[in-house]
Amino acid sequence: MTYHTAAADILVATGSGHVVVGARGPYVEFRRDQMVMGNLTQVVGLCPHHNQRHKYFHEWRALDNTMIYEQRQTVSYANYRIGYFYAAPSDLIIRGHGAAQGTHFRLVTVL
């Protein structure tokens, strides 16, 4: 499978990711070897979008400015793993084996 940004269809990851849900919502988790690093730029210094340095993650931006982050410290509100990359499902389109062409992630709550 491949994962592309919803905004501009830029390839950002390959393989299979899974969804981690924490207090701040769902994120798709990827290993570094799944990331297409050539299509990402690390934000260095103060984050221009948040005007601060991030303590718990390194911020990366796809070529279309979609945010992807790399976890650097554990947090109490989710099971994010250090060294793994995370993207909001709403920012991604999934393509390839097992996915309908251009499928957006959909999260369903079962009661």
Descriptive notes:
With 111 residues, this protein is mainly beta. The chain has one domain (2-104). Helix content is 0%, strand content 38%. It is built from no helices and 10 strands. It has strands spanning 2-5, 11-14, 18-22, 25-30, 40-42, 57-62, 67-71, 85-87, 92-95, 103-104. The protein has a 6-stranded antiparallel β-sheet, with no helix packed on it. The protein has a 4-stranded antiparallel β-sheet with strand order 2-1-9-10, with no helix packed on it. A hairpin with a 2-residue loop joins strand 3 (18-22) and strand 4. The relative contact order is 0.28.
Count of the domains: 1
Shape verdict:
globular
- The strand order across the widest sheet is 3-4-8-7-6-5
Order of helices and strands: EEEEEEEEEE
Distance between the termini: 29 Å
Radius of gyration: 14 Å
**Number of alpha- plus pi-helical segments:** 0
Beta-strand portion reads 35-45%
Low-confidence stretches: 107-111
What keyword list fits this structure?
111 residues, mainly beta, six-stranded antiparallel sheet, four-stranded antiparallel sheet, 0% helix, 38% strand, globular, disordered C terminus
